[in-house]
Every structure is written in structure tokens, then in C-alpha cells.
Write a structure and sequence with these properties.
This protein has 150 residues and is α/β, with parallel strands linked by helices. Helix content is 42%, strand content 21%. The chain is globular and about 45 Å long.
């Protein structure tokens, strides 16, 4: 029987991530597992920096603190008694998810996906798909139901 003890939930703070987080909470409860909530910040190069990002580059500590504050808002209900850790990493998102999972003996990754197809997927890529290809452990991918689904 598969009983994960350390569950990683990468978040981008989207609605898809919130649904995946709810699933991760249920799995953590069922298995008395530790839940690690991770957010990866893409590294910005000077060639693709906008005005807001320039300000961020000038104030990296306050930017990281704001991200960490937002990340710490992703918590299970108080009565769940799930041990939760919050991790902020910098770099390519899929690479950082899989690096963290490998280095920290993660048993399961529970991650949301936007479910883009066709041209939208071709243009934006899929962090979830890339993480799945690299993953050192099983992954559970959670997708929002279609508007017409029951």
C-alpha cells in the first residue's frame, strides 16, 4: 500500500493550485504526512525585465518577503493538525520542483494544472508536464473540472 509521508504541493497561487492543495490536505490527513508548500520564482535576466521587475531587482529582500508572506497564507485548516512547511525557491519552476523533491525525499507531488491544449499550450508550455517528465517520485495532477462537467 502506498502511504506517502512527505507530500510536496507546488503552488502558483491559482485556482488550480488551490484545488490541488485541497487534495494534498486530504492525502496528508489520511497518511499523517508532512505537507510541504513550495513556490518557485523564475529567475529574471536583464534582457526581459519590465519596470515593475526593475523595482523588484532593486529591492530583492522586500520582494522575497512579500512572496513568503503570500506563501504562508496557503495553510490547511487549523483543526487538521497537519505539519506544514513553506519553501520559496528561485529558478526554473519545473527544475526547482524536481530538485527539491529529489533532495528532500518527497514521496508524492500533488500539483494543479490549467489544462491548456492546442495553441495555448504550445505558446505557454506546461510546467506541470515538464515536472512530470523529470519527477523522481509519483505525481498526482489535479485539474479544474470543465464548466459543463457534472
Amino acid at each position: 500500500m502506498f502511504a506517502p509521508r512527505r507530500i510536496l504541493h507546488p503552488t502558483d497561487f491559482s485556482e488550480c493550485s488551490a484545488l490541488a492543495f485541497a487534495v494534498a490536505i486530504d492525502l496528508a490527513k489520511q497518511n499523517s504526512a508532512t505537507l510541504i508548500v513550495l513556490h518557485a520564482v523564475e529567475t529574471l535576466g536583464p534582457e526581459n525585465v519590465s519596470f515593475g521587475e526593475v523595482r523588484t531587482e532593486l529591492e530583492p529582500d522586500s520582494y522575497r518577503q512579500r512572496l513568503m508572506d503570500e506563501l504562508k497564507q496557503v495553510v490547511p485548516p487549523e483543526d487538521s493538525k497537519i505539519m506544514t512547511e513553506h519553501i520559496l525557491v528561485e529558478g526554473d519552476t519545473a527544475e526547482q520542483i524536481d530538485r527539491y523533491a529529489s533532495e528532500n525525499k518527497i514521496d508524492l507531488i500533488v500539483m494543479g494544472t490549467h489544462g491548456r491544449t492546442g495553441l495555448a499550450r504550445l505558446l505557454t508550455g506546461s510546467v506541470t508536464e515538464e515536472a512530470l517528465r523529470r519527477s523522481p517520485c509519483p505525481m498526482l495532477i489535479v485539474r479544474l473540472p470543465h464548466a459543463g462537467a457534472r
